[in-house]
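Protein modeling request. Please complete all fields; requests missing the sequence field cannot be processed.
Requester role: graduate student
Desired output: 3D structure, token encoding
Chains: 1
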Amino acid sequence: MFVSPMLARPKPDNFVMKPGEFCAEEKYDGHRLEVEISDGQQPTLFVQKGVMAWSRYGIERKLPTHLLEAFAELPNSLLDGELVVPGKRSYGVTELGNGPDLQYVIFDAIRIEEDDYTVLEYDTRRHCLECYFGHLKGPITLAPSWPVDSMIDVCRVRDEVWARDGEGLILKRRTGLYQIGKRSKDLIKIKKKQPALMTVVGWIESKGEKNYRGKYATVLLRGDDGVHTTVKTRNDAEIAKAEAEAQRTGQPPFIGRKLWIEYNERTPDHSYREPRWDRWDSE
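Delivered output (283 residues):
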């Protein structure tokens, strides 16, 4: 049965860690995938156990036969991990030609056999994962974990990951529990960000009552190459500034003003992956 996975928080600017407080794991550039292996599910001609998979949003995913067969060799469990294509980005996961190359990296467990792993600290969960899955090779593997005692250690491991074109790190608090559906302070993500200077060309209103932020919740931007993107307005203070400027001028605010954003990378169609507001060019 699907449960909402635990999510990571971006590393805050004032982040401080104590020696022995965290371990580091690679952040994979694929599709988050929850997989349930169960004798109770309907087996198929090729697979003697039932295997179900869901995206992080609970949408059922179909897996290729080579992964179904590999999962069927594992104990009954509910696993949290990443579906990846080695050497390619997340958008490669959905490309039909990459189906035979799909691999699954396990980085946590919600349940193994009849045991509830959400009540266990990370160190205990990790020890059990290594006992069950540390030997795996081929289409299913266990994510490596590195002890880090300082930000110097974190930066060393991070740079090693980036040197082989990896996406980044997840810092996991060693005493942290698996918090279903929570964006937890026990998971800290560190990703490479690149800067881009964009021009404000419009605004997009946030509609609906949930988390409503008004007419200036999202800014529409254009780069010098003509490619557009959108980012959420950084905070309520910036929204208030935009509202005040619009009232003063009677026009959409800050059109033509330059804004720096941060983004992960450019995709093959030149769009920006995971862009976010950084600062005004004049700041």
